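Morning - guanosine-5'-diphosphate inputs below, output right after.
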Amino acid sequence: MIKTTKPGEDASLQASKPGPAPSAPRSIDIPHSLSVRQLAELLGVSVTDVIKHLMRSGIMANINQAIDYAAASAVATNLGYEAHLKTRVGEKLAGTVSEIKRQQLKGEEAGLQPRPPVVTIMGHVDHGKTRLLDAIRQTNVMATEAGSITQHIGAYQVEVNGHKVTFLDTPGHEAFTAMRARGAQATDIVVLVVAADDGVMPQTLEAIDHARAAGVPIVVAINKIDKPEANPDRVKQQLGDHGLVIEEWGGDVPCVPVSAKEKKGISDLLDNVLAVAEVENLRANPNQPAVGVVIEAGLDKTKGPLATVLVHNGTLRLGNMAVVGTTWGKIKAMFNDQGKQVRKAEPATPVVILGLNGVPQAGHILTVVASEQQARAAAQKELEQQGPSRLPKSVSLDNLFDQITAGKVKALNVILKTDVQGSIEPIKNALQQLGTGEIQVNIIRSASGNVTESDVMLAIASKGLVIGFGTGVEPGARRLAEAEGIDIRIYNIIYELVDDVDKALKGMLKPAFVEVIEGRGETRAVFPAMKKAKAAGAIITEGKVSRGVSARVWRQEQLVVESVVISLRRFKEDLKEVTAGYEAGIVLKDFNDHQIGDVLEFFRKERGG
Ligand code: GDP
């Protein structure tokens, strides 16, 4: 299991802190993505220090691994720096010394200030997450806004004793981990809701695993204490059994009894959230151009593209030129969570923005740039770089050894799902013992039940793999895993499971499937075929093509599509196979965009032997 340490617990980390006192933080520009080594050089600390800090956020990275801005800036902030996103456009300007000086000056002058914590509520279904969110909203509407009706914008802010707290409005760990999987960790604190009458349930444990994998501290809210059958002590005991020891029992997890229904204990809960936030020392610099994360987005029929942005650092202002992924635009209007027009949004404040030229994706980062020209350039560059190749490669048992030898992984993060509870411990123990000096096996989540989408999402966010023992895989999970390149391995015999992981660690595992190229061809003509499909009239240049074989279409060395041969004909005659030197009319499934000159590649996947 990933060990998550709270600030202050790890003396070695504290000792290595080179940054100046918080009152005079050094400003640093960090790009969208950089390697651990580059970050260490930038911060002037050892690679080991950076890796340790990343581990505290649940990120297992090695020296050459690329990490995103969110992860890198968290390390920089921990080390006493004031991090700013160096936009791609900014990189282009790197030659302009005056521009860099100007930015650095700005950073040094301004300084960091405390910012509100961003909280996500998690817990088992029906334990009262939604009702608790509502109760908090109703009992703590900002004093100045009393009486106003809160709008659903994906997040809202409340005020407690003069301190603001931001709540993300989508409860549950799915949205939380989906954001992380896209590289954006918006949440600082998790409130774990457990119903006092029901106790710890499967999704409670799932939520704990997801929060821990992200390295986010937890505050427990024992809900429904108004019910006669409520048994808070049982909940505390159950949490302790799962390694979450509450403060009252000597641990470090605050635990507050509440009733969302009767609105009891809410202020106590918020006080505890603020206390944790203080320990976390959450800071940002409001005097910088804004960087934020999109938490919701959509198209309004009259207003056009709308996006709720949670400002991460800096202040977002009306009239700012912003870029989010491939979309950009000047901010024409901003609304807060009460539907009121606002002119600016400071760190950890959610606002709906109007003015982007398209609907951005949730989880994408918004940055403010200086001009429309820069915005266009940044969006264009993003467009060019889009595609699956940009995704960091996840580990699989097949590529594990290569990644270890290339220094790309130092820990194998495993999500383990089993048929019955009783299988978990023996498998977990056996797997953990396989760790070598070079690589650790971390079971970041273990539970009984089918492999779900949420498991796959956690694997994406943690760059891990999923191992199932005697379980099924839900169709949505399979689809997501295929799309994101996550390895799901299902076993029915413990020995085989452990043996495969052992072999993978030692580089002795034969790949589960190997690709065998059966032939190649070249498109010489395109003509209509059955129904509305188009056939490629191709000459087979190598090997053979057969009906049902997998096929790729390459155009000027770019992969156009991967599909399957569904029809193979010559002179209206259906054929099973056509060999080199002959021509054939080939129809591919769901693909009609053939062009003369395309190269066709035919292949099969075979079990490795
Ligand atoms: P969620 O699935 O976790 O979002 O749960 P909901 O907020 O939808 O609540 C599930 C059910 O529990 C609803 O019928 C709520 O009215 C009820 N509920 C929530 N909080 C409390 C509480 O504090 N006391 C009681 N008695 N019922 C509650």
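Note: The chain has five domains: 11-111, 118-284, 291-390, 394-510, 517-607.

O.
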